[in-house]
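Input structure tokens:
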């Protein structure tokens, strides 16, 4: 099934231990099998951008590990890397500015 109007994502659930949902603008982390109401959100910077071009959702089950992705997982990870790099550069620049 193809989806648009939502953010690309890569979700990994490690059975009863918990999981992580990586998106270009934020990361969701939770413990336990149930995500709903137990997740913590780590913002990475800019507001979410929704997909204009429909992307296919894919799922893979390997034992207790469940992986779901919307869009290319490598592109999702690359976009997260860009957000983290921007944030680190901005923080470094803030530290170098003299206090007024």
């Amino acid at each position: 099934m193809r989806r648009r109007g939502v953010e690309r994502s890569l979700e990994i659930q490690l059975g009863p231990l918990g999981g992580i949902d990586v998106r270009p603008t934020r990361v969701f982390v939770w413990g336990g099998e149930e995500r709903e109401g137990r997740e913590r959100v780590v913002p990475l910077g800019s507001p979410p951008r929704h997909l204009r071009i429909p992307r296919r959702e894919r799922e893979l089950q390997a034992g207790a590990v469940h992986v779901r992705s919307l869009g290319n997982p490598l592109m999702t990870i690359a976009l997260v890397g860009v957000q983290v790099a921007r944030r680190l550069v901005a923080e470094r620049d803030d530290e170098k500015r003299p206090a007024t």
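The mean pLDDT is 89. Residues 2 and 56 are 4 Å apart (CA to CA).
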